[in-house]
Amino acid sequence: MSAPRRGVRHLSLVGVLVALVVVGAFTKPEQFLTSDNLQLILTQSSVIGVVTVGVTFVIIGGGIDLSVGAIVALASVWATTVATQEFGLGGMLLCALSVGLGCGLVNGVLIAYGPMVPFIATLAMLASARGLALLISDGKTQVVTVNSVLDLGVSDSYVLGIPPLVLVFAAVAVLGWLVLGRTTFGRRTVAVGGNAEASRLAGIAVRRQRLLLYLLSGLCCGIAAFMLIVLTGSGQNTNGNLYELDAIAAAIIGGTLLSGGRGTITGSVLGVLVFTTITNLFALNNLQTDVQQIAKGAIIVAAVLVQKGRKTS
Amino acid sequence: MTESPENPNPQNPNPNSPRTDASSLSAFGASRRNVLFGAAAGAAFLSGCTSNESNDGKDAEAGQANVADDKPGKRVTIGFAGPQADHGWLNAINEQAKERAKKYKDVTLEATEGSNDNAQQVGQIETLINKKVDVLVILPADGKALTQVGLKAMRAGIPVVNLDRVFASQQAYRCWIGGDNYGMGLNAGRYIGEKLKDKKNAKVVELAGIDNLELTRERTEGFDDALKNYPNIKKVARQAAEFTVESGQSKMAQLLRAEPKFDALWNHDDDQGVGAERAIKQAGRDDFLMVGGAGSKRVMEAIKADNSVIKATVLYPPTMAASAIDLARALGQSKGVGGLAEFEIPASITLYSAVVTRLNVDEYLPTGFK
């Protein structure tokens, strides 16, 4: 995608966001435009946002990762089971990250070096990671008792009024943006997703690149799992429910091509923000679940149509 | 009998027994019961004389000959099929059933792996039917969708104890035992109503469970009906979560922003309450009272400690699974239920949604699920 066209795409997403903010300011003037609510929208974007950054890389590289929600669940459960909590904040973080990386490694090896297509391999991971999370947690909610972890989620820990979770999201997004746009790794990702055979002929280690992409996605899931632990004060096997669909939807809205070879981190981040702002608007206006779901679907279609219209004109 | 019920006067002519109305009535009731028991014992004595069978008298005293008790009886194989235990309450259901079955030497439990997939659960129940278990205890993932397989079991001569989520046809089960979702909402509403009845323009917020489940709508209906009795209270917001910690945290955080001031919150489920309470702490709010639902150990301990917004929880006891095993065993041994005069077990038993507060929490703590 050329730079100007990418700008237009992002601009239309910003337009959607502005429209949502106007609706919010109009319907709930006292609650919507407050720093509290802005913090809330950003905090609620942060966990799914980190996952979306990883998924965006995978999709741009020509793959798909359906297992992200399940990996988040497994990592959060594993990091909160009693034995791990004994090692405190560091132990839990390390555990969440290594579980994420481990699952990513399995995905990557199966897809890059094994005979499996991404859809099947990550579908299998989705099922087995959730199953393992259920097994380890025994269906119970693992409540966190480590204060240093819990403290990260409350207002005392805010840096210049910004919740640490939002800072982590921002850091992951900026790093992702730099890696995708400014490094060889990023260029190889786009090349492999655009045309794998041509990339191979051009001397890119396609298999290794694919493996690294799933590792990256797994790592993002590990980070997200730890963030979710901080946010909810617990690990549960139902964590990360439907993250795979939310992350893919945010990436697509953000202009990532599902067939690979094209996409931006900025677009994905904007996509996540649009989703969270919609949810926030609905809750502030006390809309019921059924209405919310219908409206959400309609807005997704509208957002994509607006982009398509801009692109062809 | 020392007193007549027709004269329950507190100013009793007898100065040595200053009884109130109630106590004199209960004294009468007790003595009448003694008379009946005496008669029953006499009858037992007579029947003991005329029959060759031995009769231990205790059965006869209860007014019926065949009541299930802890003593080993005829061997019963109970098939148990439930949904996937992916959260605290369902997990407690499985544990309660298994532990109760272990208690009986004459009971063998054949439990299937839980599944939320209707087709898979139908297959599991059919396997249990083919194994010819004596009685089935079924907690269907979806009562309506599993009605046919319940009918099939009953036609095959296997009585079904339907646990909690009810089948669409009464022909599909011999006995239903479950919780009272409407009553849960009703009692939560009454508790909050009584707490806020003297407050002008009181505001209440509801954090519901999964909205596409009938039970969620029943809980809300009961809650709304109870609040109708308190015209000073208005429900200002309701959001549905998904019975998970994550959804509880996220929806509660939104509710707290949407309603800067309210007086009470009813949360349908203690498991999603872990997240809801976290959101409340994160927002630094403590200006309202919170009532939970279902009755987890964690929440009961919080009620006991009385150092947070949570002041009560409305029970939806997982002990119903243990009771279902009792009923299944009684069915398998063709016995009635102790303490009731009936010869057969009842066709339906609805549990009471008690409100657990600081005053009675010790009584209920042992039933709290993790």
Explain the overall architecture.
The complex is a heterodimer of chains A (313) and B (370). By secondary structure, chain A is mainly alpha-helical. Chain A is 77% helix and 1% strand. Chain A is built from 15 helices and two strands. Chain A has helices spanning 3-27, 29-32, 35-60, 68-80, 82-85, 88-113, 118-137, 147-151, 164-182, 184-194, 196-201, 206-232, 243-253, 265-284, 289-312, and strands spanning 142-143, 234-235. The model of chain A has no long low-confidence stretch (mean pLDDT 91). Chain B is α/β, with parallel strands linked by helices. Chain B contains twelve helices and twelve strands. In chain B, strand 1 (76-81), helix 3 and strand 2 form a beta-alpha-beta unit. Mean pLDDT of chain B is 84; it is low at 1-63. Chain A binds chain B through residues 28, 30-31, 34, 36-37, 40, 43-44, 134, 138-141, 143, 153-155, 228, 231-234, 236-241, 279-280, 283-286, 288-290, and chain B through 84-88, 90-91, 94, 211-212, 236-240, 242-251, 253-255, 257-258, 260, 271, 274-275, 278, 281-282, 284, 298, 370.
Q: How do the strands and helices of this protein lay out in sequence?
A:
The complex is a heterodimer of chains A (313) and B (370).
Chain A: H1 3-27, H2 29-32, H3 35-60, H4 68-80, H5 82-85, H6 88-113, H7 118-137, E1 142-143, H8 147-151, H9 164-182, H10 184-194, H11 196-201, H12 206-232, E2 234-235, H13 243-253, H14 265-284, H15 289-312
Antiparallel strand pairs in A: 1-2
Helix pairs in contact in A: 1-14, 1-15, 3-9, 3-10, 3-12, 3-13, 3-14, 4-6, 4-7, 4-12, 6-7, 6-12, 9-10, 10-12, 13-14
Chain B: H1 21-50, H2 58-61, E1 76-81, H3 88-103, E2 107-111, H4 118-130, E3 135-138, H5 147-155, E4 160-163, E5 175-178, H6 181-196, E6 202-208, H7 214-227, E7 233-240, H8 245-258, E8 264-267, H9 270-282, E9 289-294, H10 297-305, E10 310-315, H11 320-332, E11 348-350, E12 355-356, H12 361-364
Helix pairs in contact in B: 3-11, 4-5, 6-7, 8-9
